[in-house]
Structures are given as structure tokens and as C-alpha cells.
Design brief:
335 residues, mainly alpha, globular
Length: 335
């Protein structure tokens, strides 16, 4: 696919006139890995620097491979992870700096959300065809053609996104986070291993509390909120990996990823039903046979959603000790 330059502009929320400069790569004075006894401030800068470098690498990969769904996925995850980690360290960050970067990252994420949802539906089309009677499977062809048409347009939007100035400035400024002026030396010098334990404990506690409240009568939004919490703790664990014993890390990540996948599939089914309903009014999908096939597909997706919800409740029983395991990850104890 030919790379297209777009004149579309992305608004800068607030920036200094002085252009930020990329941190020097492989600087001898700046390690790429955090250590347990690093002060929290030093560790935060190290973590943000590493996240910015990875985001830039995913940006370049997507620019070179705009048709690669994996490249788009990793680019989106990279932005989402940075946003989550900024929230994790909110207590250390200047309120203005935190609000600005969170707003900018949310803006960048929004540009890829619709494309991601359509691409997932397009990718699952063979599976969805298999759910239908053979004589009705061809009825999904107009839907597939529509999705491919919309994909071509959204690919151009993504190309303009990875080249826009807001993204470049985010990558450049993230390695130099602004800290709260009111922080005491005791807080800034606290070893990152203690700070990491406190953040993970809090996020694990939130997961257990929210999960216990869910049942068959819970709304879709409540499941979605819990799914976000699993993402947040996973991203936190990933950046804190150097502080955790391998065996303990692997164990808690297996549990986290499993529950995140279950809730992710559950969420995708919800999104795809909504997407199919919204696409139903498109002129390309007005034939009676096509409308009938899409209606039947929505019924089948509904069944899959119910199965996934039940799978979540069965597996969440294993999460009762999740908070306790989170406490033991770092080998230290909070007061």
C-alpha cells in the first residue's frame, strides 16, 4: 500500500514553544533497566524513557507496514500502556503534566479505536461464516466488502496519525516527566521496589473488589471496567518485571493474561454486535438476504457472549488469592 501524506492536523493541547529533544540513545548515564533500590524518581524516568523508545519503534514499524494488523495492535498497546503507567505514578507527577499527557494520549488512541473494531470483525469473518448455515454464508460477502472499503480509508488515517506532530512531541517529552513540587525527599527517595509493591497491591485489590460484585445481572459496562483494571495491572507488572522473581512473575502473569483474554473476547462480542447494528443502515447492506444473515449473526454472537460471561465467573473463583500473591511478588512488606 502506498504511503499517503495527509493534510489532516491534530490539535496540540498545550505545549511550550521550545521543541523537546529526543533523549540520547544508549546513554552511559541513563540505564534502560530499573533496579530494586533505585529511587522512585530515577526509576520513573527510566521507565518513561523506555516506554517512549518502544512507542517510537512501533510508530516506525506501523509506518513501514501500514497493512500489518499486528503492527497496529502493538502501536495501540504501546500508547495504552504509557497512559496506564502515567496513571500509576500520578502521585509523583505534576498535575498539569499528568493531565496534559493523559489527554494527548487519549486523543491519539481515539484515532485508532474504530479502525481496530472494524479490523477485528473483518479478521473474524471466516469464523463467523462457519457459525451460519452453508446456504446463508455467502450473505456475509457484502458486509466483508464494506469492511474492506472502510479499512482502506482508515489505513490512510493511521498513516497520518503516525506522522503527526503531536505523537512526535509525546515521544520526545515523555522521558522527562515533571514531578510534583510538593514531594518530600522521603517520597522521592523511596526505593522503587516499595512503590511498585504499593501500586500493584492497590490494583490487585481493585480487581478483586470489582470482580466479586459481578454476576449474571451485571451490566456490560461493569465487565468492561474490570477488563480495563486487568490491563492496568498487566502493564504495571510488565514495567516492574526486573524487580520480580521469574517464577512469581510468570505465575501472576498467567492468571492476569487469562482473565484479560476472557474479558477481552467478551468485550469484542459486545462491540461487534453494536458495530453490526450500526453498519446495518449502510446502502450496501440493504438487500433482504444480507439483512437476514446479519440478524442471524448477531444472534450467534449473543450466544458466544453469554458463554464467555459464564467462563469468566468460573475462572474468577481462582482469583480469590490474587491480592495475596500480588503482595508476595516483591519480597518486601509495606507498613
Amino acid at each position: 500500500m502506498k504511503k499517503l501524506k495527509s493534510k489532516r492536523e491534530y490539535p496540540l493541547c498545550s505545549w511550550s514553544e521550545k521543541r523537546a529533544v529526543y533523549p540520547p540513545p544508549n546513554s552511559a548515564l541513563k540505564r534502560e533497566t530499573i533496579m530494586p533500590n533505585d529511587s522512585s524518581i530515577v526509576a520513573i524516568e527510566t521507565i518513561f524513557r523506555g516506554l517512549a523508545v518502544k512507542l517510537d519503534a512501533h510508530r516506525k514499524r506501523l509506518l513501514e507496514n501500514p497493512d500489518d494488523p499486528e503492527a497496529l495492535h502493538k502501536f495501540r498497546v504501546s500508547i495504552r500502556k504509557i497512559k496506564s503507567i502515567i496513571d500509576a505514578f500520578k502521585a509523583f507527577l505534576s498535575p498539569d503534566w499528568h493531565a496534559l499527557h493523559r489527554r494527548n494520549l487519549s486523543h491519539l488512541m481515539a484515532e485508532t479505536n474504530e479502525k481496530r473494531d472494524r479490523d477485528v470483525l473483518l479478521t473474524k469473518m471466516p469464523f463467523y461464516r462457519s457459525l451460519l448455515p452453508k446456504k446463508m454464508q455467502k450473505g456475509l460477502t457484502p458486509l466483508q466488502k464494506l469492511l474492506l472499503k472502510k479499512k482502506e480509508i482508515s489505513d490512510r488515517v493511521v498513516l497520518s496519525l503516525v506522522e503527526n506532530e503531536l505523537l512526535r512531541q509525546e515521544i520526545a517529552s515523555l522521558p522527562k516527566p515533571e514531578m510534583k513540587s510538593s514531594l518530600t525527599k522521603e517520597v522521592t527517595n523511596q526505593p522503587i521496589v516499595i512503590t511498585a509493591m504499593q501500586i500493584v497491591e492497590k490494583r490487585a485489590s481493585t480487581i478483586v473488589k470489582k470482580g466479586k460484585r459481578l454476576d449474571a445481572q451485571s451490566g456490560e459496562e461493569e465487565y468492561h471496567k474490570l477488563r480495563i483494571q486487568y490491563k492496568k495491572i498487566r502493564y504495571t507488572l510488565e514495567v516492574m518485571q526486573p524487580l520480580i522473581e521469574r517464577e512469581k512473575y510468570d505465575e501472576i502473569m498467567r492468571l492476569t493474561k487469562k482473565m484479560q483474554t476472557i474479558l477481552g473476547d467478551f468485550h469484542d462480542y459486545q462491540v461487534q454486535k453494536t458495530l453490526l447494528l450500526s453498519l446495518g443502515s449502510d446502502p450496501l447492506l440493504q438487500k433482504r438476504k444480507t439483512k437476514k444473515v446479519i440478524a442471524l449473526l448477531i444472534v450467534e454472537i449473543d450466544k458466544l457472549e453469554e458463554e464467555q460471561e459464564e467462563l469468566f465467573r468460573k475462572n474468577f473463583i481462582k482469583m480469590k488469592r490474587y491480592k495475596k500473591r500480588a503482595k508476595r511478588l516483591f519480597g518486601v512488606h509495606s507498613n
